[in-house]
Design brief:
single chain, 186 residues, mainly alpha
């Protein structure tokens, strides 16, 4: 992307509010532009705003996921911007959920998701909002990877011992309930 165009998009993203995050943004920039900016390590705030825009647009217009799932996975795998990861985890939660009936995730993509998501939950700096979303991603992967259920139980218990915030307690209760219905693979 040309530097001038990137700067214009960055300035616009920094001025948008949540109500401005609609498909109309795509009149001024492409999904590819937003994907690029969402993982820019030199502009953390712009990266956050670009990933936030992606989240809002894609979850309202899920047909736009077509063709960009590999890039979403690359971005998820390589970014370490917690603010961007919050939006990326929400996108992956939708892609793995029963609401998604249009797009398939390959076994190789699931393996990459597992690796990155476990890295996220093991990072002591991980914010709670990203952490609970990562736990949901792991829960969605349990049917194809039953071993994840036991690991998820252990990670939830460990997290609750470290920090029992309201958000974590609430999500953990819901996940423990779901995990209680999963056949034990030990």
């Amino acid at each position: 992307m040309a530097e001038n165009k990137q700067q214009n998009i960055a300035e616009a993203l920094l001025t948008y509010g949540a109500s401005d995050l609609s498909i109309d943004i795509l009149k001024h920039c492409s999904l590819q532009d937003l994907l690029e900016l969402s993982v820019d390590p030199k502009q953390a705030r712009v990266a956050f705003r670009a990933s936030w825009a992606l989240e809002h647009i894609l979850l309202k217009h899920t047909e736009l996921f077509k063709g960009i799932i590999p890039t979403l996975l690359i971005n998820y795998t390589f970014t370490d911007n917690w603010s961007s990861l919050r939006s990326y985890t929400k996108l992956w939660m939708w892609l793995l959920s029963v609401k998604n009936t249009a797009y398939n995730i390959t076994p190789e993509q699931e393996e990459q998701l597992l690796e990155k998501t476990f890295a996220i939950i093991e990072d002591s700096d991980c914010p709670v909002a990203v952490l609970v979303n990562a736990y949901d991603i792991l829960m969605y992967l349990v049917p194809n990877h039953p071993w994840v259920a036991q690991e998820l139980r252990l990670q939830l218990e460990l997290s609750l011992e470290k920090e029992a915030s309201a958000a974590l307690i609430s999500r953990a209760k819901r996940l423990f309930k779901k995990l209680s219905r999963v056949k034990n693979t030990d």
